[in-house]
Amino acid sequence: QVHLVESGGGLVQPGGSLRLSCAASGSIFNVNVMGWYRQAPGKQRELVVIITSGGGTKYADSVKGRFTISRDNARNTVYLQMNSLKPEDTAVYYCNANVEPRFPRVPIDVWGQGTQVTVSS
After folding, report:
1. Which of 64, 71, 77, 88 has its CA 20 to 30 A from that of 57?
2. Residue 116 to residue 106: CA distance in whole angstroms
3. How many whole angstroms separate alpha carbon 86 and alpha carbon 96?
4. Rounded-to-integer distance, Cα 106 and Cα 104, Å
5. Neighbouring C-beta atoms of residue 64, cutoff 10 Å
6. How many angstroms separate the CA atoms of 22 and 96, rounded?
7. With contact defined as beta carbons under 8 Å apart, do 2 and 111 qualify?
């Protein structure tokens, strides 16, 4: 069993900052791509940013220059620093990871439970 546990969501004023964390735990051999997605009310889930185990990244255009993803491979943890937040960033943010369990060593996609981010004055 592999689990992702997220933390760090909350309420923030426009222009403010938040930092999300997501830790993978369980019987893990390797964690490949990790990333963040979000889903606003009435909208489809969308990619925010992903990061490979080597540090390569891909950001959605809407968050470039404001959000920064990083990861600690030793801790199987990914972080999302969100600055200059806007009301349109309001959504449930989901962590995602492509994980190779110890057995069977077949990559699987794992999702976190989601954390609410609300940007409002």
Report:
1. 88
2. 31
3. 23
4. 6
5. 9
6. 9
7. no
What one-character DSSP code corresponds to residue 64? Answer: T
What pLDDT, on the 0 to 100 scale, is given for residue 30? 93
- Give pairs for 60-65: CB < 8 Å, separation 24+: 62/88, 63/89
3-state secondary structure the chain: CEEEEEECCEEECCCCCEEEEEEEEECEEEEEEEEEEEECCCCCCEEEEEECCCCCEEECHHHCCCEEEEEEHHHCEEEEEECCCCHHHCEEEEEEEEEEECCCCCCEEEECCCEEEEECC
- Which single residue is written with the structure tokens 């943010």? 93
Cα–Cα distance, 22 to 115 (Å, whole number)? 10
What percentage of the chain reaches a pLDDT higher than 90?
99
Q: Which DSSP category does 42 fall into? A: T
φ/ψ region of 107 (left if φ > 0, alpha if ψ in -120 to 50, else beta) reads beta
Answer for the pair 33, 52: CB distance below 8 angstroms, yes or no: yes
